[in-house]
Write a structure and sequence with these properties.
Layout: H1 2-29, H2 36-55, H3 57-74, H4 81-88, H5 95-110, H6 117-133
Helix pairs in contact: 2-3, 3-4, 3-5, 3-6, 5-6
């Protein structure tokens, strides 16, 4: 009787462990999908950012950074964008490019230096790629 109870408990334990591991793997591989309103918000703001880039490229970079921050927030990441990037690096096909874009943003926001338009364009492309990696479909 004791052995049967023990075997039953072990079987139940193993089933629970198996289900837990399966659940973790399933959640990790499941792609995140933005809600329709979130996706529309991201797309409409991206169009505005592209339009703004022609006349105010520095402001466009600041807004692109804010948009990436918003996208990560909707995925459940908290903190500053830098903290979010540290936690979410695996979501991006090129996390170094995302960091590069964020560093350009930091230069704009905190330093009064001229930044060549080539770097601004590259940063904008990196933000677009990062948002697409998150599922924005820009």
């Amino acid at each position: 009787m004791i052995i049967q109870n023990f075997l039953g408990m072990m079987t139940l334990f193993l089933v629970i462990v198996f289900l837990f591991i399966f659940f973790l793997i399933f959640l990790k591989k499941r792609p995140f999908v933005f809600a329709p309103k979130e996706l529309q918000y991201i797309k409409s703001h991206w169009i505005r950012i592209i339009d703004m880039f022609h006349s105010h490229p520095r402001d466009a970079i600041l807004d692109a950074d804010k948009l990436l921050d918003y996208a990560l927030k909707t995925k459940g990441y908290e903190g500053s964008l830098g903290e979010k990037l540290k936690r979410s690096g695996k979501l991006f096909s090129d996390i170094n490019a995302v960091w590069s874009a964020h560093k350009v943003r930091n230069s704009i926001a905190h330093e009064m230096v001229e930044i060549d338009e080539t770097y601004l364009r590259a940063a904008l492309q990196n933000y677009k790629k990062a948002l697409n990696d998150l599922g924005a479909k820009l």
